[in-house]
Amino acid sequence: MFSGIIENMATVVAVKRDKENIDLTLECPFAGELSIDQSVAHNGVCLTVVALEGNTYTVTAMKETLDRSNLGLLKEGDKVNVERSMMLNGRLDGHIVQGHVDQTATCIDKRDADGSTYYTFEYRLDREMARKGYFTVDKGSVTVNGVSLTVCEPTDNTFTVAIIPYTHDHTNFCNIEVGTIVNIEFDILGKYIARLQAVSKD
């Protein structure tokens, strides 16, 4: 479980393909504090640490993860948003994030507004999945590349988020341009509500 509050940006230092899986080795300031089997979110995807060496660590992304996320697009030098799992004795500053990316979205607009930056993302519309809670609502929560954000101006398959300068500079939002593919995770609470409504109709 995560909160969507990014701790650092890790740098990809190696990408190794093994059949349908990918091993990613990343350099990160808190690598020395990690342990084997620990969970870390990468652009919002929960992955398990499988190797440690100095200030780097390695995780494995399997085919299912690669099909649903942007991790398969990563190359050496890319910056990745990382967050260690949430501690239960702390404040929930973002929202409840599972680390299970639902799908990708594409940035279709980026504009400045009084110091902040507005990004609009478009995702593939699936009516059946929408009935199960895979959608965004105005002032609701969404996770973009692991960052907990508030939705504005949602449509059936687009939404906009406002990024303050600190978030822009301390996450890989600083590298997002029109055409960039990002990971999104819809709000788990919305999925539960949609499921309860479906069950109540049966």
From TrEMBL:
Q: What is its EC number?
A: 2.5.1.9
**Would I find Transferase among this entry's keywords?**
yes
Keyword Iron-sulfur set for record: no
- PANTHER family the UniProt entry points to: RIBOFLAVIN SYNTHASE, RIBOFLAVIN SYNTHASE ALPHA CHAIN
Q: Where are the Lumazine-binding repeats?
A: 1-95, 96-197
Keyword terms of this UniProt record: Repeat, Riboflavin biosynthesis, Transferase
Look up the record and name the pathway of this protein: Cofactor biosynthesis; riboflavin biosynthesis; riboflavin from 2-hydroxy-3-oxobutyl phosphate and 5-amino-6-(D-ribitylamino)uracil: step 2/2
- Give an example GO molecular function: riboflavin synthase activity
InterPro entries linked to this entry? ATP_synth_asu-like_sf (IPR023366), Lumazine-bd (IPR001783), Lumazine-bd_dom (IPR026017), Riboflavin_synthase-like_b-brl (IPR017938)
Gene3D superfamilies linked: 2.40.30.20
User: What Pfam families would the database entry show?
Assistant: Lum_binding
Catalyses: 2 6,7-dimethyl-8-(1-D-ribityl)lumazine + H(+) = 5-amino-6-(D-ribitylamino)uracil + riboflavin
SUPFAM superfamilies, sorted: Riboflavin synthase domain-like
Domain of life, per lineage = Bacteria
Write down what this protein is called: Riboflavin synthase
Biological process terms in GO annotation: riboflavin biosynthetic process
Query: What function does the entry list?
Result: Catalyzes the dismutation of two molecules of 6,7-dimethyl-8-ribityllumazine, resulting in the formation of riboflavin and 5-amino-6-(D-ribitylamino)uracil.
Species of provenance: Segatella copri
Q: Tell me the ranges covered by the Lumazine-binding domain, including all copies.
A: 1-95, 96-197
